[in-house]
Amino acid sequence: MDNLQPRLERCFAAVFPDLGPQEIPRASIGSVAAWDSLATITLFTVLEEEFHVPIDPADADNLVSFELILDHLESRVGGG
Q1: Hey, what domains does the chain have and what are their CATH numbers?
Q2: Distance, CA of 24 to CA of 28 (rounded, Å)
Q3: Neighbours of 10 (CB within 10 A)
Q4: What is the distance between the terminal CA atoms of the chain, rounded to a whole angstrom?
């Protein structure tokens, strides 16, 4: 868990450059205007590259916030 969050924050910053560092951990599809379907695909691609884990597009309906994505990654790749 220790290094997942900063890595995820960097991914979010790359996909959503207008978000400030304090906004990223609270980001959700409802609070980030730029988070549309294309941004979701881009984010998933960045996450797959960063964490070396496939993300099923069917999970898109559930992965709608920084916190939910972090929880998902923790369950898939662990915190190490």
Answers
A1: 4-77 (1.10.1200.10)
A2: 9
A3: 13
A4: 6
Three-state secondary-structure class, residue 28:
strand
Render pLDDT for 10-67 as a digit per residue (tens, 0 to 9): 999 999 999 999 999 999 999 999 999 999 999 999 999 999 999 988 888 999 999 9
The count of residues in the chain is 80
Residue type, 34: A
Q: Is 80 helix (H, G, I), strand (E, B) or coil?
A: coil
Burial class (CB in 10 A: 0-12, 13-18, 19+), 71: middle
d(CA 42, CA 50): 12
pTM, two decimals, is: 0.91
